[in-house]
Amino acid sequence: MSSEIFTFLTFELLSFHYICIRNKKRMEIIQFEVFGLHLQEPMALLTNWMIAGFSFFAYFNLKRNVSVFQNYWRNFYLILGISMLIGGLSHLFFHYTGIQGKFPSWSLGVLAAAFSSFAIISIWPNEKQQKSLWIFVIAKSIILLVVAIASRNFLFVAIDNSLAYLFFCGYMGYKLFKKNYADMKYIVIGVLVLSPSAFIFGLKLNLHRFLNKDDLSHFFIIGCIAFFYMGVKRMQTSEVKLTANEIWKNPR
């Protein structure tokens, strides 16, 4: 079963990469003026800030120092919220900032994804694998972010995020769920909710000028992080206060 899930996740990631390269269509960007300022993409500002709003809500509603696992998730929501605040503005003021204005948001998005990976790693039972996974996450994040900025291409940020959410939150989350972390199912469901956004983005599915691929995918992101929050909130119990090895060796 685990090999089938891994194959599915790998296929989805490779399909997303192939589609992104193959499809080149773009929809006309909404541009407007306010007080002499040349602005654009108002819906991108709105949907980015919707994600930011929920992220800050989650951050302030998750208790501090309940567990290392939860602290990582609090960091995830805080960084993601800041990333989306800046991301919305980078869309709005693109006429002035250009692609460089998106680099801070990209960087914080990669950092947020890393924190979600660290959260899962923190409750993984094999200490040797934990160290290897930590190194992998750090190396993957740095390399793909550098390539994204050097090539000025968001695709590499998307690949980084896909690896973080599909492999760590999806595959590893499922493995933890099967052992003893019952509430990890919400994390896995969140990944499934997020999955269509990859194809929306890759296929450049623009339904309307006011609901392009970015705006549409943002709604799936909101659904995803909402399920993440439900899972983490339910794990504010004794089950994450135990050591990972204790839980792994004593399933229900």
**H-E order:** HEEHHHHHHHHH
Q: How many individual β-strands? A: 2
Number of domains: 1
Oligomer: single chain
**Main sheet characteristics:** 2 strands, antiparallel
Radius of gyration based on Cα positions: 19 Å
Low-confidence segments, given as residue ranges, are 16-25, 241-252
CATH topology: Rhopdopsin 7-helix transmembrane proteins
Q: Largest sheet, order of strands side by side?
A: 1-2
Mean pLDDT: 83
CATH architecture: Up-down Bundle
N→C terminal distance: 20 Å
Query: Globular, elongated, flat, extended or rod-shaped: what is the shape?
Result: globular
Number of helices: 10
Percent of residues in helices comes to over 70%
Strand content: under 5%
Provide structural commentary.
It contains ten helices and two strands; from the N terminus they run H-E-E-H-H-H-H-H-H-H-H-H. It is mainly α. The longest helix is centred in the N-terminal third of the chain and has 25 residues, at 68-92. The radius of gyration is 19 Å and the shape is globular. The two termini are 20 Å apart. Residues 16-25 and 241-252 have low confidence and may be disordered.
